[in-house]
Amino acid sequence: MRQVKMYNPKIMLVTGGSGFIGSNYIEHVLECNPDLVVINYDLLTYAANVGFSEEIMQQYPERYKFIKGDICDESLLSEVFSNHSIDTVVHFAAESHVDNSLTNPDVFLQTNIMGTNALLKVSLKFWKERYGLDVDRCRFHHISTDEVYGTLTLEQQDIFTEQSPYQPNSPYSASKASSDHLVRCYFESFNLPITMTNTSNNFGPRQHGEKFIPTIIRSCFNKEAIPVYGEGKNIRDWIFVKDHCEMIHKVIQHGQVGESYNIGGDNEVANIDLCRTISELMNKLDDDSFDYQQLITFVKDRAGHDLRYAINMDKYRQNIGGAKHTPFGQALRTTINYNLSLLNKDALT
Ligand code: NAD
Fold first, then answer.
1. Which of 13, 20, 146, 260 should be mutated for ligand 1, with most atoms under 8 A from CB?
2. pTM exceeding 0.85
3. Which residue, among 9, 41, 37, has the nearest Cα to 22 in the 3D structure?
4. pLDDT 10s digits, 328-340
5. Any idea which residues carry the catalytic annotation?
6. CB neighbours (10 Å) of residue 210?
7. How far away, in angstroms, is 41 Cα from ligand 1 center?
């Protein structure tokens, strides 16, 4: 493993910290880093978990603060940087739902590209003046997706590495690809100390109901059709959000400035198999003999639907450490139980 001096964030601005992954990340870092202060900067769009801040504030009143704001708002961002002496940015804020990007791409370009640029500009200005861009004193970590690499065929052996060409196929992935390029170019052009991670499909507590796994669980619960695009053959690599958050933080601490790292779940699953697995777990929920698998319903395929994503994590393993992967069944049960608790239902035992 290559030795890099450990980076130690002190006052962190987490953008999109009320969203699915950002909220899990905040929980993780506050619990594991007793001296860390976290400022959650979030616009609270439809995708945010509005109750999260209150919950976490009660646990960490001295070390957590929420600020409602848009990442495109440079003047508010500058004020926040100065008032709180931010030394680290962990950038989750984005429009994140591929389906929405097909019907309304503009907001994806605005938030994911222009918003990232605004955040980079403000970080650069503040850290240049305050820290002379010293890599031991400031850091910008960008969260991205494996979708920037486009699609794999079912048979393809050479799965996505950090060297894979960018070939985004949806307005969402194109906007994320653009933001990745901007982050990298702020390092190359201006020496902004950045790191970046590209990750596969997350699942777990606090994921918005529009996403695939919460949709399957809710459909089972309501005994409604479980909608599956095409023939359900599309493959995704699923990673439990808690594992992802742990690995993001390890990259921030141990990653090489200017580098990106792929993070996957080593867990490729076809959509149809995912529906079957969750349906089987849901079958155990109640006594009646209803088989939830009968709810699986194929619907017209999504435009530009990538067939397969799979991630090669060698760079992470070689440079950062061992990857943590919670067993899939266990992580799915946690996710199902979280979603059932929202519906005031008893957990799976
Ligand atoms: P999410 O949609 O659950 O949360 C996004 C959060 O960003 C929300 O709280 C929202 O209010 C906030 N936000 C949106 N626009 C904003 C703006 N203009 N200013 C400030 N805040 C704004 O998203 P997520 O699933 O938690 O994804 C987080 C990041 O991880 C995104 O950058 C996404 O591209 C990336 N990612 C997600 C996955 C996944 O499977 N969910 C996989 C790989 C990468």
1. 20
2. yes
3. 41
4. 999 999 999 999 8
5. 146-147, 172
6. 13
7. 12
